[in-house]
Amino acid sequence: MQASFERLTGQESDKAEARNGLRHIFSLSLTKIADGLIDPKLVLSWLLGVLGAPGSLVALLVPLREAGALLPQVLLAPWLEHRKQRRWMWVVGSGGQGAMAAGIAASALFLQGWAAGLAICVLLATLALFRAACSVSYKDILGKTVGQTKRGAVTGMAGSVASIAVLVFAGLMLAGLIQSRTAVIAAIALAACLWITAAVIFSTLDEDDSTPQKDTGLHRFRDVIREDANLRRFILVRGLLTATALAPPFLAVMTTQGNEETDNLRTLGALLVASSAAGFVSSYAWGWLADRSSRLMLLAAGLLGALAMAAGVAANLAGWAQTTAIIPGVLFVLMVAYHGVRQARSTYLVDISPEDRRTVNSAVANLAIGIILLLAGAFGGVLSWVGPNAALIGFAAMSALGGLAALGLRDVT
């Protein structure tokens, strides 16, 4: 075990750290695979389309998942800081996500239309609350149990394993080896098992007691937005650019209209391949640009996302949305923009925040973005009554405005 971990990290480790590091890799890999199998932007959006749920509920999937994972962190962080053993919050969070995923699978198996859509949305919102518990606790636990110079190898290996697994799942769909919605529901049930297994593995970590924090009040976040005009503008830009995360479900729904279920599954496989490939091929280019100007990177990503959404609308109007390669190609470009937004926003927030303000700025930004995601999701839901074209046009306008607004941010090149 120790030798395996040392080969992975390229550094010497003691037995306790190696044991913990491998348990991190196994647990995190399982949860990331589960995330891919139940991806709200594609898998759940496609599934709701096939089940006949209304577009207004499809529009809520991403906001419920993302906002639900962001908003509770401000309340969970003080509670966590009072605990000596902090891995149990992650264990409960992972196990809870597994239970909710099992409920989603059961709902998709036995319900249709509005009933299926409502049940899945409620379960996904609850899953997001458990996800918030994992998110707020993980960095602290990783810092306690794995040395600083080895943490990147741990999380990077987990991400690579998960990407390969999701690509295999997508390849099976694309090849026609997964030919029914039941198989997709089974994949969601598998995700539930993976989350629960991860919780069991993570519970065996060797964790030293933490010193409970005394000053954990929410007053620490007070007045931050009022004092920092550039942070306020950054939150506005980031909020507008949430369109790149909210738009993919409408592309997925477009592909389900008028096709046989087997064809739909192959298209879903192509969408998953496009989404996974986008992150892989764009990372270096976005990283190169972020080193030069994360502000200009936000501009580029916002405009690219708007162009991709406009292309999706054009393809649908031309009757090409059900052609296997067209919408996946559009999604590839959109997901390249999405990954650019994610990388740029993280880089810029770190760049503008003094060391003693990074945690507070991040918490305030996450709280604000969680609220914006819910509002933007409601905006998309209203537009979805007109159709996916209207939703994509609205999100394209948001993305373009967000990119242009980034020009007003303070330059930290």
Total number of helices:
19
Q: How is the biggest beta sheet arranged?
A: none
Uncertain spans, ≥5 residues at pLDDT below 50?
none
CATH class of the largest domain: Mainly Alpha
Fraction of residues in helix: over 70%
State the total count of DSSP E strands. 0
User: How far is it from the N-terminal to the C-terminal residue, by CA?
Assistant: 43 Å
Question: Would you tell me the structural class of the helices and strands?
Answer: mainly alpha
Relative strand content? under 5%
Shape-level CATH architecture of the largest domain: Up-down Bundle
What integer is the average pLDDT? 81
CATH topology of the largest domain: Growth Hormone, Chain: A
Give the helices and strands as they follow along the chain. HHHHHHHHHHHHHHHHHHH
Any idea how many domains? 2
Shape: globular
Structural account:
This protein has 413 residues and is an all-alpha fold. The chain has 2 domains: 1-205, MFS general substrate transporter like domains (Growth Hormone, Chain: A), CATH 1.20.1250; 225-408, Growth Hormone, Chain: A, CATH 1.20.1250. It is 79% helix and 0% strand. It contains 19 helices and no strands. It has helices spanning 2-9, 15-37, 40-51, 55-58, 61-70, 73-81, 87-110, 113-145, 151-174, 181-202, 224-227, 229-240, 243-246, 248-256, 261-292, 294-317, 326-352, 358-384, 388-405. The model has no long low-confidence stretch (mean pLDDT 81).
Please outline what is shown here.
With 413 residues, this protein is mainly α. Helix content is 79%, strand content 0%.
